[in-house]
Amino acid sequence: MRYLSTLAKGIGIAAVAAAMLSAASAEKVLRIVPHADLKNVDPIWTTAYITRNHGYMVYDTLFAVDEKGHVQPQMVGKYSLSDDKLTWTFTLRDGLKWHDGTPVTSEDCISSIKRWGKRDGAGQKLMDFTADMKAVDAKTFTLTLKEPYGWVIDSLGKISSNTPFMMQKKYAETDAFTQVTEIVGSGPFKFVKEQWVPGSKVVYVKNTDYVPRSEPASGAAGGKVVKVDRVEWVYIPDPATTMNALANGEVDLWETPAPDMLPLMKANPNIEVAVIDPLGTQGWLRMNHLHPPFDNPKVRQAVQMAVKQETYMQALVGDPQYYRTCKAFYMCGSPQESTAGDKGYLEGNMAKAKEMLKEAGAVGAKVVLMQSTDIPLLNNAALVTAQILRDLGFNVEMQAMDWSTLTSRRAKKEPPEQGGWNVFHTYTTGADAQTPVTNIGTSGGGVERAWFGWPTDEKVEKLRDAWARESDPAKKKELIDELQAQLFEVVPFANYGQWFQPMAWRKGLKGVLVSPVPFFWNIEVAEK
Amino acid sequence: MYAYIIRRVLSTIPVMAVVAVFVFLLLYLTPGDPAVVIAGDYARPEDIERIREQLGLNKPLYVQFFTWVGNVFTGDLGISIFSNMPVLKLIGQRLEPTLALAICTMIFAVVVAVPMGVLAAWKAHTWVDRVVMIFAVLGFSAPVFVIGYLLMWVFSLNLGWFPVQGYKPIAEGLGPFFASIALPTIALGLVYIALIARMTRASVMEVLTEDYVRTARAKGVNNRTLLMRHALKNASVPIVTIIGVGVALLIGGVVVTESVFNIPGLGRLTIDAVLRRDYPVIQGVILIFSGIYVMVNLLIDLSYSLLDPRIRY
Fold first, then answer.
1. Are A407 and B36 inside 8 Å of each other by CB?
2. Which of A79, A165, A193, B149 could bridge to A59 as Cys pair (CB 3.0-4.6 Å)?
């Protein structure tokens, strides 16, 4: 009997110990594999999407874009515009605190907007229109414009890089070209700097002091309710290893699964694959407008006529479920979607394209095509373009290089024979491409202000500017149609398609939000 | 002997200097600009120039080089352009996984390969020899990543014995550590097993034809003693040499293995830094790698005198 009693006590103690251990290990951890390694932590200093995503973890924004693409207040409780449409007044909502426990103030927000305004394109434009920003009290501040500007709220709610994240004044006063190294945000997660191993792991813990909005989460807007204790970003560079880790339950979510892994993952009953980004990505075949043969708009139009989006999408993505052909310069599915100005472009009409090229007198012209071999999507796009240009009658010289080399080379304005270039490929997310202000590829600002390739067109610039100033949706729509028609003539880039990057996660994970940017609040982790 | 060691240690200085100059020039003459990567797509030329100025990239090449060399002498390998963390700290974070993988692989390879090679030599031209040599050819031929995925599929996904990826430091316990390092060690070790086994076989076969081996046999020395005391010991100099040469190969193999098994080691750090032109990190890592390589070869040279008393320094 004594032995039985001792045994029972032993079992009891073991049970209590097990319960304690279980409680200690009951911490809910969401392990995700991000699309890239977090190299730096200041989302104003860099435009890297991974740093933007980090920004959304630890910082908060004054306004935010919801699932339907509408801008909603986030840190702001109430806001108003004066009758003369020159003064915006913003009041912060109650309960906003920095991670060090101090309250978020108007001064913090003004300094943050100023710093962002020095680095971001939309921010720079907003600052051009801004006469002054003043703190009225600890929670209220005003932004006074020099003249009415229709893109104030949209700028402050800009969803993608550089997103205007709010920082403490002492950090926001850091030079915009110097990294902020101390991460004290007011967002739903706290960054655990001591556990950050660049190239391997980033750790965030729930900010228990965060007061979410009462509205349900929707895109970047609404209540950012955190349903896990800890989020770990586990960077795994190899796609096959990532897929195996997901199948084995070692990670919960993979942000950007490789296209060739999708069939395997879809066949796995424990993995769910879905597209959460409604806008997707837009491909650009960028031509250099400074040098022959693409300094002639007729030649660029001929290329635009020869490009067949379907061919590119097959080569880049494969599964039609994850792409669509879309000629709109400002994305299909966005409020700026338009069909204006299309003359049968981007459908691979080779006969017509050859005729146009012959008229332009550019048959046999040499084209230097920069091929980025370390990014499979861009490599494939370059191969397709090379064949199209050869079929069209160009003498194509492909120059293989890594993306880092390409980004330096594309800045060269010299002719191709002196180290310059004629063509390269890139892509941009729909979040950036959906408006004339944020889609830098459609700028016609020439050598001084346009993006690499330097398209020059005064009418395009005037229309972009008019669109930004306009606040009437109907007039905005008219301006978009006119702008797109002009863009088809100028051909700042040949749009080679729109595709949608799916996300993969373990079945049982709930609450993944629909948005062009991945967010990790609202997600519930299933019991394993 | 001591004079030789001092001479050899001192001789590493010009070697390291050459490596430093070569790496520095190679990096700075390679196209690519970290300032452009940092500045992002929206940056104006003046923004890029400002970043370049802040990073000191606009200074003349020789100024940048001597600044870097001066800092290295004070133990400062610089600051990562991207993460803004000291290079020494980044290397420190990554050193343990890489060293653990390299050491485990070497031990595993030597423990398996030397007996295999001796056995193949002893049973030369029999089926045992053929099996060992087929294994060696396979080890040479199969790329590390193929072996890695196969091991992962069998032992992680199907049998569930080991994790698919990741690294657990020794501080978290020997069990998790060995579980995380087992498959990478086997994947990376196969090529070294092949290399060392072939060299061992050739060396031992050569020694087995020597007069003193025949004499030992005539004296009635048993096979085990003959192989281990007479043959293997006298064949060990080329085997140890090939182990030393293997360290250079190992460093290359570690890069691939770390990627396949997601081990946050120096190899991954190097690749990431190269792709982004994070110059201070690349320079720091290569300096460390070359230092390790030079030191390993010094140790190998010194071990010759222990293995063969006729060798004197």
1. yes
2. A165
